[in-house]
Design a protein that fits this description.
The complex is a heterotrimer of chains A (322), B (502) and C (173). Chain A is an alpha/beta fold. Chain A is built from 11 helices and 11 strands. Classes of the chains: A alpha/beta (322), B mainly alpha (502), C mainly alpha (173). Chains in contact: A-B, A-C, B-C. Chain B: It comes from Roseibium aggregatum.
Chain lengths: 322, 502, 173
């Protein structure tokens, strides 16, 4: 490919022959070889992971290789990493899915199998409706739903998905939880279905609405976080409109339980450097996520708090299996 | 016009052209080597594009996508192992052509018709993106379900021997794909408590197992008993198809390009269904349908035109609606997003220049494909000179790498092996493999769209018969099944008569 | 392909019918039904496919049972058929090749995760050429084992940067 990789190829080819002789002792400074970062999902999760991995590698001085292990709602990747040696060379790009995957019975272990490294980013779901329906706020949507004969059809990504959990919490807070009928769509098709008028509202990610909002075809009524989203600055939060909902999807890094503290510290510091890099800032702007750095201790507390929250929410939705 | 000129300047820099060229080569290589798939190539190319400017980055990704779609036909024709699910239909007639020593004609035809199909769809996209995206919006779950069912009905035309065996194969494909987490309700299905089974069977892994492993086993069987004949090197000359051949089939190409573009424009369907529909269309309207499956050139022209026409078609929902049609275009979407190009209706207002640059990149990619692949045919055909038993070992290694890299999971290597052995058993039993892959490609869409449609209608079937489009496709499916059944019955009756007279 | 004996067809259809029955029973037992109304539920489709498989396989078997005589081979033999069924191709040879291929794929997958991709590839290629192909020319054996291992490593690991499997016991490269 590039001359640089060619040179790398030749050097590495020579290195292969020498590698056993030069094997470094186990007590060397972390990291002395590439770190593997397991990525659980495609799409935005994968894009952020790729950018982050490059920056992490720069900060650590050794490459960080993102390896995709999708499937089972994160179960496959979590199980893989949980079983690796706790030496910091196998880390996972995790998210709230660690909580939901456990409680919905996809994995037999919970978040305590992992040592948190750092929280990196958050994404906030948004509720959108087609323009021209006359709904400009959550209150107007609520009034319309109350008057409706049937139920309000809301597009989500699938039962038990994050977007459904958010929808359920939001509509419960609005008091119209029993007036909702959920429609599952894959492939990010919900905005198109809104346009076609087959559904009344959709709860998806801001990046999917952006272009439709710019062209004036969709209105975003609310985002579910504490703050507004940079990508859709005009969309009010649910809290601003008087409904107490604050759910965001976080993403971060974790290592298998038992990873030495100094290794966790090294990775945590690298993560801090990486999220402040210009490339990561640019990715955040383009992909529509927020950079939310939290150190290992704070991140751990947040995961534990979330775990209780999702256990309760999934219980209410009758999706809790364990 | 100003936008167009700026776009030309952006897309025709040496850097951007180089990016398209590089992407095309990567795509061609991954598409043409059995076991490797261009979805993996795209996943690899994605992080490489992060450091590039927007236009070269997208050019690289599109080049990989288009190159992979075209390259998939190479191993389908030479070895009977499709490089992508979209090339599975090409095996039916392309591989017999190789056995007859007409590999280079088949390969040459495939390249040319792929380019024609691709450029046709691009033109359609440029002139009618607004109209087509409006139509695509009208395709809701009910309509897509009906369309996919129509695609399934082509199984009837695929099973050369018995309709029953073809249907059994199709059902097996549908059945396998239900293993894993149910996408709509999130329930575990047939996982027996195993985390590995939760991820289900991957389509690409299964495809490698279905086509490549039986090839390897057969080669081993024949080699052990000295039954392996010297490869058909008889006509290893790189004969290209004549102009007359292309001209005679231009009307077929036009129809198949239209099928491909149309299918590509509807998200959630993709290349495989287009290729199969085009194949069965070509066969049904052929004056000599009995030649199909035995090395008919039309059986290569139809699916190859259609699956490349999908590339242009699929860009319509991708760019104008922000909806990717398949895993491959989902990666292209990620590439667009990270460079700050958000697909959707506003794209054509805010980034007109970029859109034009994308069009130009597609044209450049097809020029590269035509050049690389026509030059490459000599090289590709050379593969047939490798002693087949050694080739089988190489393919084995490549398939294991291919199966592993799809999801970086050793489980996929195991499932490839098991599926391959079962596939070999099916072939032995006279059950065709192609309907299995069709069932696997369409199964998840079929089920998902039906269930979403029922959620929308609150459980009333009227969502299907109140939509003229859905009704049309349901009617067409019924018609195909009915026609096939009567043909089969008539054949049986005439056979019985023959045997009585004899 | 009408050249299959009635007996073989009957056996295959019985096996497929049994698979269909086992599948249907397990689906019915383990997957929850939908809530009704608009909810089709996760069980409906797997159940439908299982029943279809039973009906089709059983139907095929029955139709072969009913057929009073072997249908005459009316279709001209295609090239695919011509290649199959050569005199040297005995049932035993097929079973051996089948078992060896399955074994080697499973071994490959398992070894990759234990000793890493490189060693696994080397071992598997060596085994295939020596045991399956019964190759005795040293140059071919060595060339294949070293050549394929080096080429795949160079192309995939170095040039393309694909993360290949790393071993949990030993790992090179």
């Amino acid at each position: 490919m590039t001359p640089k990789t060619m040179i790398r190829a030749i050097v590495a080819a020579g290195g292969l022959l020498l590698a056993p002789a030069l094997a470094t002792p186990a007590l060397a400074q972390f990291p002395d070889k590439p770190v593997e970062m397991t990525v659980l999902f495609g799409g935005t999760a994968n894009s952020i992971a790729q950018v982050l991995a490059t920056e992490l590698g720069n900060a650590l001085g050794k490459p960080v290789v993102p390896v995709s292990r999708p499937g089972g709602g994160g179960a496959v990747g979590y199980s893989y990493v949980a079983d690796t040696r706790p030496d910091g060379y196998n880390i996972v790009w995790n998210s709230n899915s660690i909580n939901t995957a456990y409680h919905t019975g996809k994995i037999p272990f919970d978040y305590q199998k992992f040592t948190p490294i750092a929280m990196v980013s958050t994404e906030v779901p948004a509720l959108a409706v087609k323009s021209g329906r006359g709904w400009k706020s959550l209150d107007e949507l609520k009034a319309a739903a109350m008057k409706m004969d049937g139920k309000l059809k809301v597009g989500i990504s699938g039962k038990g998905s994050f977007t459904q959990l958010v929808s359920a919490a939001l509509f419960d807070a609005m008091g119209i939880g029993d007036k909702i009928s959920y429609i599952s769509y894959g492939n990010g098709k919900a905005p198109v279905e809104l346009m076609a008028g087959r559904i009344d509202a959709a709860v998806q990610w801001p990046g999917q609405y952006k272009s439709y909002v710019d062209s004036g075809q969709l209105d975003v009524l609310a985002v579910t976080g504490k703050k507004r989203v940079a990508l859709l600055p005009d969309a009010k939060t649910a809290t601003e409109q008087g409904y107490d909902v604050d759910i965001t999807m976080w993403r971060g890094l974790a290592a298998p339980k038992g990873t030495p503290p100094e290794v966790v510290k090294a990775l945590q510091d690298a993560a801090k450097t990486a999220v402040e890099s210009p490339a990561f800032l640019k990715a955040a702007k383009n992909l529509g996520f927020d950079i939310t750095y939290e150190d290992s201790a704070a991140f751990g507390q947040d995961i534990a708090k979330d775990d209780a929250f999702y256990a309760k929410l999934l219980g209410q939705l009758e999706l809790k299996k364990q | 016009m100003d936008h167009f000129l700026t776009a030309l300047q952006m897309a025709l820099t040496p850097y951007a052209i180089g990016a398209v060229g590089l992407g095309t080569i990567i795509g061609l290589i991954f598409g043409s080597i059995p076991g490797l798939t261009f979805t993996v190539a795209l996943a690899l190319a994605l992080p490489v594009t992060f450091g590039m400017d927007a236009v070269p980055a997208i050019a690289l990704l599109l080049g990989t996508y288009i190159g992979g779609m075209t390259g998939g036909s190479v191993s389908a024709i030479l070895l009977g192992i499709p490089g992508t699910p979209s090339a599975a239909a090409t095996v039916l007639d392309g591989y017999p052509m190789t056995k007859q020593g007409r590999a280079s004609i088949a390969l040459g035809t495939a390249v040319i018709v792929s380019t024609v199909g691709g450029l046709f769809s691009l033109v359609v996209m440029i002139v009618s993106v607004n109209l087509v995206s409006k139509i695509a919006i009208d395709f809701g779950p009910a309509e897509i379900f009906a369309l996919v069912l129509f695609g399934m009905s082509t199984i009837c035309g695929l099973s050369s021997g018995s309709l029953m065996k073809g249907l059994i194969a199709g059902v097996l494909g549908l059945l396998i794909m239900t293993v894993g987490i149910d996408k709509i309700d999130g329930d575990n299905r047939m996982t027996f408590g195993s985390v590995n089974l939760l991820q289900g069977v991957n389509l690409l892994v299964a495809m490698i197992g279905l086509f490549a492993v039986p090839f390897i086993i057969d080669t081993f069987v024949q080699h052990r008993h000295g039954g392996l004949e010297a490869p058909a090197t008889g006509s290893l000359k790189a004969n290209l198809p004549s102009f007359g051949l292309m001209w005679r089939n231009s009307w077929l190409m036009a129809r198949c390009a239209a099928i491909g573009t149309g299918i590509g424009a509807i998200p959630g369907t993709g290349g495989a269904i287009a290729a199969f529909l085009a194949y069965s269309h070509a066969r049904r309207f052929s004056k000599t349908p009995e030649r199909f499956g035995r090395g008919a050139i039309e059986g290569v022209i139809a699916p190859e035109t259609a699956n490349n026409a999908v590339t242009g078609g699929t860009l319509i929902p991708l760019l104008s609606l922000g909806v990717p049609g398949d895993p491959a275009t989902a990666i292209v979407l990620a590439g667009l997003m990270i460079h700050g190009i958000t697909p959707g209706p506003a794209l054509f207002m805010t980034s007109e220049t970029t859109v034009y640059a994308i069009y130009i990149a597609v044209v450049v990619a097809y020029i590269f494909i035509l050049v690389f692949q026509l030059l490459g045919i000599r090289l590709f055909v050379y593969v047939l000179r490798i002693p087949q038993q050694l080739l089988a070992v190489i393919i084995l290694v490549l398939c294991v790498i291919g199966a592993y890299t799809v999801r970086n999971s050793a489980f996929d290597v195991y499932s490839m092996g098991v599926i391959g052995v079962l596939a070999w058993g099916l072939i032995r039993a006279g059950i065709p493999i192609t309907p299995v892959i069709l069932g696997m490609v369409l199964g998840p869409t079929l089920e998902g769209e039906y269930r979403t449609a029922m959620q929308l209608s609150g459980g009333h079937l009227d969502i299907f018969y109140k939509s003229p489009v859905a009704l049309l496709f349901l009617g067409l499916s019924a018609l195909v099944v009915l026609m096939q059944a009567t043909t089969a019955l008539r054949e049986r009756a005439s056979k019985r008569l023959e045997s009585k007279n004899a | 392909m009408t050249g299959h004996s009635r007996k073989a067809d009957m056996a295959v259809s019985s096996v497929l019918t049994l698979i269909g029955i086992a599948w249907t029973v397990e689906v019915f037992r383990s997957i929850p039904a939908g809530a009704g109304g608009g909810d089709v539920g996760p069980r409906a489709f797997p159940l439908l496919y299982g029943v279809l498989l039973i009906m089709l396989s059983a139907g095929w078997g029955l139709s072969r049972l009913m057929a009073s005589e072997e249908p005459p081979r009316s279709a001209p033999p295609s090239d695919v058929e011509a290649e199959e069924g050569t005199a040297t191709d005995t049932p035993k040879a097929r079973i051996v090749a089948l078992a060896l291929t399955l074994f080697i794929v499973l071994l490959y997958g398992w070894m990759m995760t234990r000793v890493g991709f490189l060693l696994a590839t080397f071992a598997v290629v060596l085994f295939s050429t020596l045991v399956i192909l019964r190759e005795r020319r040293f140059l071919v054996i060595g060339g294949m084992a070293f050549g394929i291992t080096f080429a795949t490593w160079l192309v995939f690991e170095v040039l393309l940067g694909i993360p290949l499997a790393v071993g949990s016991w030993i790992n090179l490269g």
